[in-house]
Amino acid sequence: xxxxxxxxxxxxxxxxxxxxxxxxxxxxxxxxxxxxxxxxxxxxxxxxxxxxxxxxxxxxxxxxxxxxxxxxxxxxxxxxxxxxxxxxxxxxxxxxxxx
Length: 99
Prior knowledge:
The chain has helices spanning 18-24, 41-52, 89-98; strands at 11-15, 30-34, 63-68, 79-84. The protein is of the alpha+beta class.
């Protein structure tokens, strides 16, 4: 578990199961977020960005760590990806228009 290392950054944990979100409330520094099931790791990243960017919990240039498990092994983490958050297309076009 990542939370046992007590990182200086917040952990936003997305789960499709409400009972898992309830258990994650007891973990240090974890903020559970209940969301529907994703069809791919790319969809997980898009969902996390869509949820965290508008709340200013994530900004362009930040690194988002995605840790997940596949359906093959219940309760096990076997996937990790680091993703640099890019500026959204809408924000880029708005900034260009202001120039």
